[in-house]
């Protein structure tokens, strides 16, 4: 009898442990980007599952060369609880670094810079999915203040036109 109870408890602990590992720690490869000279590789990875419900997605960028890992940069993405996808990452290779811009529906774009010498840096951008965030906020504020009847199609470079 004791053996059956012990077996059941151990089985439940293994099941719970595998669930926690998958939800919090398992690395999911999202996308891989290779430098034009094929010397470097940038991996975009999700760590575990997104926080439930509608929470942050935990992710990281890993820069590698033929010898091994050069740099890692971990961060969170505010994207309404969605899993990371390659659509959220735009990569630009430069002479001494790779730059990745990460987007999320609920955050400004963030630029992560991983240098080939192992250093890292990040910059908060004034864009959201590549669009000017300040213009978007301004348009939303004007829409709330004046209503939809005050907006027309963009003309001659103007984003909005306020009606009388």
Question: Can you put this structure into words, describing what you see?
Answer:
The protein is an alpha+beta fold and 164 residues long. The protein has 2 domains: 103 residues; 35 residues, no CATH class. The protein is built from 2 helices and 10 strands; from the N terminus they run H-E-E-E-E-E-E-E-E-E-E-H. Strands 1-2-3-4 form a 4-stranded antiparallel beta sheet. Strands 5-6-7-8 form a 4-stranded antiparallel beta sheet, with no helix packed on it. A two-stranded antiparallel sheet has the order 9-10. A hairpin with a 2-residue loop joins strand 6 and strand 7. The longest helix has 23 residues. The radius of gyration is 22 Å and the shape is flat. The termini are far apart. The C terminus is likely disordered.
Number of domains: 2
CA radius of gyration is 22 Å
Q: How confident is the prediction overall: mean pLDDT?
A: 83
Low-confidence region ranges = 150-164
Write down how many β-strands occur, each being a DSSP E stretch of 2 or more residues. Answer: 10
- Distance between the amino and carboxyl termini: 84 Å
Largest sheet: 4 strands, antiparallel
Strand order of the largest sheet: 1-2-3-4
* Global outline: flat
Helix content: 10-25%
Strand content: 35-45%
């Amino acid at each position: 009898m004791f053996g059956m109870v012990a077996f059941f408890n151990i089985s439940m602990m293994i099941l719970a442990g595998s669930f926690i590992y998958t939800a919090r720690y398992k690395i999911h490869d999202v996308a891989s980007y290779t430098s034009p000279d094929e010397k470097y590789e940038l991996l975009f990875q999700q760590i575990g599952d997104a926080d439930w419900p509608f929470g942050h997605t935990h992710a990281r960028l890993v820069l590698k060369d033929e010898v091994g890992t050069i740099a890692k940069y971990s961060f969170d993405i505010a994207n309404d609880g969605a899993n990371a996808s390659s659509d959220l990452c735009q990569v630009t290779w430069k002479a001494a670094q790779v730059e990745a811009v990460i987007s999320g529906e609920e955050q400004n774009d963030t630029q992560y810079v991983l240098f080939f010498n192992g250093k890292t840096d990040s910059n908060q951008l004034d864009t959201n999915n590549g669009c000017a965030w300040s213009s978007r906020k301004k348009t939303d504020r004007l829409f709330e203040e004046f209503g939809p009847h005050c907006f027309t199609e963009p003309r001659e470079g103007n984003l909005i036109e306020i009606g009388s």
